[in-house]
């Protein structure tokens, strides 16, 4: 196959996922992914995930997170955990199991979710006296204890978070990271004396979610308010960050930050005595982001060569590959690779060398490209001679020869440029999909063109239900994604695209994950 430099490389017939001795290395054409992102997105996504992010499991909808993806989760976790600690949120851990009685208590809002709750009914061969539910979320697990722990205004605010797994037995088609039956998330649950404090926190958390997507995953998102139909039914209002996948024309809810109001306080009797000695109900929030973030990142950035990881979340930011020729000073090249990794690591850059002698350089290039490492450094005889290294960017393929003297500064700068460029490219692609419409006919045309639709809306639940009904099809119905906090001007007299009534706001619509 033609290597990145255009030269013919010797490669392993089995491709990067195989693994053969050098002597077996043969010319090969079908290295890498078997489908293109634009041709079969679903298959493309699944293949990309399988390149070390995910392993499929023998229970449908469950996936193994391999170190390559788990490291991304951990990097985001480190950021978010430190940020919420600055906000005085404390971590805790509640049990995985929920007693049926407590789950029942929340009947009203759980009703719609009930089919997704998984139950343990046996221990060994005998039936349990009382079946036990597995948490799909932890309101019912935690709030009885909030009721116990909160007595007076001095116990407030109570701000807890837990990093855990949850189980939702979904029946619609599972997708790695995006929709799985078990997933990892953090769930924050906070209680305040006043609504003002709760309102403020909702937005502070939402801003952290925006930063995870935009600063870490280089994925542009829209911050906004969920409609009455799409909000968390148990709460007062739901805010979210929404991403968009141009290839499928689908929106994807990136994370949610809810103000629960006093609904749960009423149900679980979470009261406090205020300064005047009167009993009041607390105001609550809950907020979560999950491993879905990783799926959105993969879908946004990946290309026909595989994954592209943003430097800020890549567990390996730079891979250093020796390119020895027949009569070259192989040991000298290897030593230069090791020294390069040492210098980069010393400077806090996550760098690794690939000195395996049973793979050709070309095979290694493709393999690390498939895994999405943001920057590759090649060191060959000429580089050694000139005291330089060659850098190759994963995001745009640009190559540069840089003097070893300024290696660290150069690489740091390159990683920043890659991060920024990935975000810009993703943002441009998303912007190209946004379509402002005014009428139902325009709406349908835009929907069929897989657009992210911005439409003037009357904000009535009935109308959203009607739009869903009128757009129902094999690929799912259109619904609201969110009403962006940043609203374009809505001229007086603008009418709702669906009902013809006066429009109240601009709202994003589309099919979604
Ligand atoms: C599935 C089964 C049972 C979502 C479910 O978003 C219950 C539920 O309550 C359920 N799927 N939800 C809503 C979760 C709301 C809320 N929980 C805390 C969050 C953030 C974290």
UniProtKB/TrEMBL annotation:
One of its GO terms (cellular component) is cytoplasm. It is an enzyme of class 6 (ligase). One of its GO terms (molecular function) is proline-tRNA ligase activity. The keyword Zinc-finger does not apply. Residues 1-13 have a biased composition (Basic and acidic residues). It holds the Pfam family tRNA-synt_2b. PROSITE patterns: AA_TRNA_LIGASE_II. Residues 1-26 are annotated as: Disordered. The keyword Protein biosynthesis applies. Keywords: Aminoacyl-tRNA synthetase, ATP-binding, Ligase, Nucleotide-binding, Protein biosynthesis. InterPro entries: aa-tRNA-synt_IIb, aa-tRNA-synth_II, aa-tRNA-synth_II/BPL/LPL, Anticodon-bd, Anticodon-bd_dom_sf, Pro-tRNA-ligase_IIa, Pro-tRNA-ligase_IIa_arc-type, Pro-tRNA_ligase_II_C. Transmembrane segments: none annotated. GO terms for biological process: prolyl-tRNA aminoacylation. Its EC number is 6.1.1.15. It catalyses: tRNA(Pro) + L-proline + ATP = L-prolyl-tRNA(Pro) + AMP + diphosphate. SMART domains: ProRS-C_1 (SM00946). Residues 95-310 form the Aminoacyl-transfer RNA synthetases class-II family profile domain. This is proline--tRNA ligase.
């Amino acid at each position: 196959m033609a290597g990145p430099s255009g030269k013919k490389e010797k490669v392993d017939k089995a491709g990067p996922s195989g693994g053969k001795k050098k002597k077996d290395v043969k010319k090969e054409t079908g290295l890498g992914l078997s489908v293109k992102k634009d041709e079969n997105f679903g298959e493309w996504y699944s293949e990309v995930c399988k390149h070390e992010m995910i392993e499929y499991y023998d229970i449908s909808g469950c996936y193994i997170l391999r170190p390559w993806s788990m490291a991304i989760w951990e990097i985001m976790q480190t950021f978010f955990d430190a940020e919420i600690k600055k906000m005085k949120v404390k971590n805790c851990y509640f049990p995985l199991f929920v007693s049926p009685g407590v789950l029942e208590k929340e009947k009203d809002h759980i009703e719609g979710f009930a089919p997704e709750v998984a139950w343990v009914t046996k221990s060994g061969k005998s039936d349990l006296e009382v079946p036990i539910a597995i948490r799909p979320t932890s309101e019912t697990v935690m709030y009885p204890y909030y009721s116990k722990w909160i007595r007076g205004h001095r116990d407030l605010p109570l701000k807890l978070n837990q990093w855990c797994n949850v189980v939702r037995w979904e029946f619609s088609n599972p997708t790695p990271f995006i929709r799985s039956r078990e997933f990892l998330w953090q769930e924050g649950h906070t209680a305040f004396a006043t609504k003002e404090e709760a309102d403020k926190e909702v937005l502070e958390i939402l801003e952290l979610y925006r930063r995870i997507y935009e600063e870490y995953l280089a994925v542009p998102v829209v911050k906004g308010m969920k409609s009455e139909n799409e909000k968390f039914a148990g709460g007062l209002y739901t805010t979210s960050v929404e991403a968009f996948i141009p290839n499928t024309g689908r929106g994807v809810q990136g994370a949610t930050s809810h103000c629960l109001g006093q609904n749960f306080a009423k149900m679980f009797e979470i009261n406090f005595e205020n300064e005047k000695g009167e009993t009041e109900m607390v105001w609550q929030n809950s907020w979560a982001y999950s491993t879905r973030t990783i799926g959105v990142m993969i879908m946004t950035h990946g290309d026909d060569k595989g994954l592209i990881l943003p430097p800020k979340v890549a567990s390996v930011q730079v891979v250093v590959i020796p390119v020895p020729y027949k009569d070259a000073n192989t040991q000298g090249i290897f030593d230069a690779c090791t020294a390069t990794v040492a210098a980069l690591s010393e400077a806090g850059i996550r760098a690794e060398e690939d000195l395996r002698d049973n793979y050709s350089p070309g095979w290694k290039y493709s393999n690390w490209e498939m895994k999405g490492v943001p920057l590759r450094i090649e060191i060959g005889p000429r580089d050694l001679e000139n005291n330089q290294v060659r850098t190759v960017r994963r995001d745009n393929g640009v190559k540069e020869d840089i003097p070893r003297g300024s290696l660290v500064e150069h690489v740091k700068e390159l990683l920043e440029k890659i991060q920024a460029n990935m975000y810009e490219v993703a943002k441009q692609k998303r912007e190209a999909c946004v379509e402002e419409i005014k009428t139902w006919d325009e709406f349908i045309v835009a929907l069929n063109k897989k657009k992210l639709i911005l439409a003037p809306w009357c904000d009535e639940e009935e109308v959203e239900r009607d739009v869903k009904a009128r757009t129902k099809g094999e690929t799912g119905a259109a619904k609201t994604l969110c009403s962006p906090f940043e609203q374009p001007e809505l001229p007086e007299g603008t009418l709702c695209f669906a009902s013809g009534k006066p429009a109240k706001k601009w709202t994003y619509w589309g099919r979604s994950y």
